[in-house]
Amino acid sequence: MLLVKAFHIIFVVSWFAGLFYLPRLFVNHAMATEPAEIARLKLMEGKLYRFVTPIAWLALGFGMWLWLGYGFSGGWLHAKLALVLVLVGYHYYCGILVKQFAAGQNTRSHVFYRWFNEIPVLVLVAVVILVTVKPF
Ligand code: HEM
Asked: Of 25, 39, 72, 114, whose Cβ has the fewest other Cβ atoms within 10 Å?
């Protein structure tokens, strides 16, 4: 079980590297005016999203393996899963934004994306406290 948990944590950390960096690219993209910079940001956003999506599935897969394979249960896990659903929704909304930016159809400001960038931070703090402290 510890090896499964180790890979769960490795893929969770890698997933968050993408969830923290991609919205930061959106902040820069929303401020960009130079065509060369805009083209480079479009390329980076598309590559990063395609790279981090299978990693997200691996993080979730190992989590499911822990949950269903080793009989974990409790209110903490239900609360965690609700937050994980928010995270999966956030991830796929980033995919929609990648497409909007690629089509030059972004309508939001860099200020919006700076706040948008904070959502994974809040989810990470809540999930890690839930899974380590198991308060309920
Ligand atoms: C389908 C989604 C997920 C499921 C079913 C799941 C389930 C689990 C289970 C059953 C454990 C073992 C808990 C223990 O050993 O006490 C665990 C550990 C852990 N999970 Fe998840 N998890 C999921 C997604 C996530 C996500 C998205 C994060 C990060 C935000 C995360 C962070 C962690 C951490 C840090 C641990 C290690 C806790 C420890 O060793 O005390 N998990 N997960």
From this structure: 39
